[in-house]
Every structure is written in C-alpha cells, then in structure tokens.
Write the structure tokens for this entry.
Amino acid sequence: MSEDRKVDEAKAKDGVVPVTRDCYSNPERDLLITVAQESIRFGLDSGRPLRVDSGLYPVALQAQRATFVTLLRQGDLRGCIGTLEARRPLVVDVAENAFAAAFRDPRFPPLTAAEFAGVEIHLSILSPATPLHFVSEDDLLGQLRPGVDGLILTWHGHRGTFLPSVWESLPVPRDFLDHLKMKAGLPADFWSEDLCVERYTAIGVP
C-alpha cells in the first residue's frame, strides 16, 4: 500500500489531517532541499541560519507547517532537529531547523565544511497532532498504525517524539512505544493513567 493511500485511510478512520506528497510539486520539494542546503552553507560561513523571506516562495511553502530536518552521513545519523507545532512558514521552518540540525544538535559536534559535502538531507513535514484516547496500554497499542503514525508522548515534564520513519527500525508497536518512553526519559515499562499520547502523520522530502 502506498504512503498516500495509508494516510488517506487513516484520515477517514479518525480525522487526523494528513500531509501527502500531492501537497507539494516536485519543484517545490526540490526547493525545500535547496533552502536547507543553503541554510547550512550560510551557517558554515556566518554561524547563523539563512534568513528567508517566505513571500518570495510559492504559496504552498508560505503556509505554517512544523518540520524536522534529519542529516545523514554515510547512512548514519549526523543531526536531527525539528518543531512539533506549526508556528512559522514552511520554508522558514526548514531553514531554521536545517541550521539547528547541523550545528545545535547536542548529540553531535557542529558540522564541518569537510563533512557537509557528504551529508544527505531529509525533511519531514508534519500534520497537526491529535490526541489519542485510551483506557490501557493495550488499548493504546491497538490504535497505533505502523508506518503511518508519528507519536508525541508527554507525562509531567517528560516529552519525546518519534517520526513515522522510526517504524522502519522499530516495526513492532510495543517496541516502538517502549523506546519512545525511554527517549522521553521514562522506563520502558512505565505506565500512568494520565500519560498523554498524540499522533501525527508526515511526508518525507525527498
């Protein structure tokens, strides 16, 4: 089943508003990658992100969207930073997050010019998140849609998210949830009745 068909069926089932590949043309998707590249290149020279005037870009890229920017080098993670709430134009969010992924991810030293040449840039454009309603952990697990859902888990100051792409390495719902708990700083077997879990969909660029 295609990614677009999966998210369309998901929307029909529970009202989650997906973003699909049809939302953006190929030239618009290429333009977003170019903006991410230019923001990192600008950061290497100036130490700050590229300032983007969203009004100079296609209308679709001016809409407020939340994004994540992931950097890979030789197949390994080299940085990943993003936003979960849409608060600025898509093209601006990409520029800011690309810079942050390259230079402000606390797990890695700042990207160097030598590394930049070999970096792959991947973007995730997120739909608005919607809360899941459940009465038990098994109920929650039964609602998860492998390969479709991104999740945000929150509990008393603990918070973590997994993009839908994480299902590729954690395809079993219980493993996905357990690792998300640990990312949020909680034990894998943690459970509380006031645990908050939200889901969103995302498209990848390229």
